[in-house]
Amino acid sequence: MNSTSTYDEIIKIINEIPKELLPKLASVINSFKKSLSQDNKIITSNSDGSGLCGIWEDERNADEIINDIYTSRTGYGKREVSL
Question: Which stretches does DSSP call E strand in 1-83?
Answer without folding.
Answer: none
